[in-house]
Design goal:
Elements: H1 9-23, H2 38-44, H3 48-51, E1 85-94, E2 98-108, H4 112-127, E3 132-135, E4 138-139, E5 144-145, E6 148-159, E7 162-173, E8 179-190, E9 193-204, H5 213-228
Antiparallel strand pairs: 1-2, 2-9, 3-6, 4-5, 6-7, 7-8, 8-9
Helix pairs in contact: 1-5
Region (Disordered): 70-92
Protein name: PknH-like protein
Organism: Actinoplanes siamensis
């Protein structure tokens, strides 16, 4: 369901541009070419103050084992592939005309082989997503959501030695209840880690996609993976 919030496009772009260079480690600071641990991934995650002054952790903590939905419509999130230690963080920027959210989840496996197997399971889910869905209006005792159409595109993605894919979802509500939601779910692997990084922006009373969406999700993902190396 759409929430009352405000998107702050300039806050994300300006904040990330300011600290992206500083976030890159020197060769001396990077971990060795061996196994990446949970502490390293936790330290690589973006913090609210780095993204923008109005971002904050949600009042209710999300289940660290819960993944986001890959497919459009009313699809359920896939279960995390087994065998990994997990570390996660969630932040949001909410206002009167929209909202932005960032979900960062790292699956830290014992070795590279296990990480690749985990990513393969997630890719199978992504490849099974319908490219477009239409969902009728939903009105229940605890939910009211207008009808909408949503598209899902799966793209190959490579960034700073990490490889994988990204699902890009675009949701558009019916004309009498205008609103949009743009979501990018990036799934990238290097060595023994699978990173699932999800950025979403929701807009009320708008019928066009969010300006700067593509640039922002790429910066958010790119900053994290550059910190790990």
């Amino acid at each position: 369901m759409l929430v009352t919030a405000r998107p702050l496009r300039l806050a994300v772009a300006a904040a990330l541009a300011a600290f992206a260079v500083a976030g890159c480690s020197s060769d001396d600071d990077k971990p060795d070419a061996g196994r990446i641990d949970v502490t390293t991934m936790r330290g690589a995650f973006l913090q609210a103050a780095e993204i923008g002054p109005t971002w904050a952790a949600p009042e209710t903590s999300a289940d660290p084992q819960q993944m986001v939905s890959f497919c459009g419509g009313t699809s359920t999130p896939p279960p995390p592939p087994p065998g990994a230690d997990t570390v996660s963080s969630s932040f949001a920027d909410e206002g009167q005309t929209g909202a932005q959210t960032l979900e960062q989840l790292a699956l830290v496996y014992p070795d590279e082989k296990a990480a690749k197997a985990g990513q393969s399971l997630l890719r199978a889910v992504a490849d099974g997503c319908a490219p477009a869905v239409s969902v009728p209006a939903t009105v229940t005792s605890d939910k009211s959501e207008p009808a909408y159409d949503e598209t899902v595109e799966v793209r190959e993605l490579n960034e700073s030695g990490w490889s994988g894919f990204v699902l890009v979802r675009h949701k558009k509500y019916e004309a009498k209840h205008p609103g949009t939601a743009d979501t990018a779910v990036a799934v990238l692997t290097t060595r023994n880690v699978v990173l699932v990084d999800t950025y979403a922006i929701y807009q009320l009373n708008r019928s066009e996609a969010a300006a700067g969406f593509e640039t922002d999700w790429k910066r958010l993902v790119g900053t994290v993976v550059q910190r790990v190396g």
